[in-house]
Design goal:
By secondary structure, this protein is of the alpha/beta class. The chain is 45% helix and 10% strand.
């Protein structure tokens, strides 16, 4: 199955895959701001458009002190962002806004791990949110091998970090000082002053030194190199534990609530795949190639540990936890996966209905 055959089954995915990201402080990246395509759009912050009463709900209006009613926030990665939905109106928060007693807004980011999700909430959400739903989980697992240093429990890796490494290496590579005239050379020697170069200053030299790089970036970015470092899953879970503790602390004793829904992953379910899902998964496997197969093989069997630990971490923090991989509707033959991570409109609608049952 070719790319074009995949797009015939899921034409909206062309829009999602065509749009890149941009730098944003603290979060490291955001989907391109002020974007519009038939499948989705974003606001000036790169946040997915949420609809309320058929109209776009702006972040400024959602955050306004004069806002009337109780507010809910969906936080997560690209699955919560709504990759796979055919329009802004079919995403989970927009579906919720048709029936819920709360007004919902989407603060999810594509490629976010747990720390970025927490930071996004801190940056964008109003202070009196009544309900938070975290719909996420796969990025802390799939990218767990990038937690290759113990200190990354506190300063975790993020998915596009190699872009920053290349940019900083280029910017901070020492350059030869500019040429100076013979007169300047003579005056400098008479005054016994060293030749000055901005690149030689400690502030510039130390900002992205080889030692700094070794703390955050492995020398070899190949998949095999990451798996040489044992304990990466435990370090990733330690980061998640820290982030869940911050979530729990914010809501404890307030009468407000945060719940965590671990997103469904085809291989983690007992689903009877639809004909469309079978075709799409076969295509995805070919597109991803050998590298993805190597990673999958190395991680095989770890998902059970990860899922049980996530449930335990949430329980000890007093956070209600649901594993969507065990939901009855996920196991049926309906077409809910648009690829190996994201949901169809039907999947978004059904997940929204589950959330509505839990929080109203």
């Amino acid at each position: 199955m070719s790319h074009e055959a995949f797009y015939r089954l899921a034409p909206q995915m062309r829009d999602y895959l065509a749009v890149g990201a941009t730098y944003t402080p603290f979060l490291m990246e955001a989907t391109l701001p002020n974007h519009y395509s038939p499948a989705f759009s974003t606001d000036q912050y790169g946040l997915r458009t949420t609809l309320k009463d058929g109209q776009p709900l702006t972040l400024d209006r959602f955050r306004s002190p004069t806002f009337q009613g109780r507010r809910g926030v969906l936080v997560g990665n690209s699955t919560a962002f709504g990759v796979g939905a055919t329009s802004d109106g079919t995403t989970i928060p927009s579906q919720l806004n048709r029936s819920s007693r709360l007004t919902w807004f989407n603060i999810s980011g594509r490629r976010y791990q747990s720390t970025q999700e927490l930071l996004a909430y801190m940056l964008y959400a109003p202070t009196d949110v009544a309900q938070v739903v975290i719909f996420s989980g796969i990025n802390n697992f799939d990218y767990a091998p990038r937690w290759f240093q113990p200190q990354q429990q506190l300063r975790p890796p993020f998915i596009r970090q190699e872009l920053y490494q290349r940019a900083l290496q280029s910017h901070y590579t020492p350059q030869p000082p500019p040429a100076e005239s013979r007169l300047k050379q003579l005056l400098r020697r008479l005054l016994r002053r060293p030749r000055y170069s901005p690149e030689s200053t400690p502030q510039r030299r130390n900002f992205f030194s080889a030692e700094v790089q070794s703390h955050f970036f492995p020398a070899d970015h190949s998949n095999a190199s990451y798996f040489k470092h044992s304990g990466f899953l435990e370090r990733s879970l330690a980061t998640l534990d820290r982030d869940l503790d911050r979530w729990a602390h914010q809501f404890k004793g307030t009468g407000r609530e945060v719940i965590y829904i671990l997103q469904p992953i085809p291989e983690w379910t007992n689903k009877q795949f639809s004909p469309e899902e079978k075709q799409i998964f076969a295509a995805m496997d070919k597109i991803r190639g050998v590298a993805w197969q190597e990673v999958s093989q190395e991680m095989k069997g770890m998902e059970d540990i990860y899922r049980s630990r996530m449930a335990e971490l949430c329980r000890t923090r007093g956070i209600r936890f649901f594993d969507a991989n065990s939901f009855d509707w996920v196991q049926k033959t309906d077409w809910i996966f648009i690829d190996r991570y994201h949901l169809t409109d039907y999947g978004q609608k059904t997940l929204a209905a589950f959330i509505l049952d839990q929080v109203g």
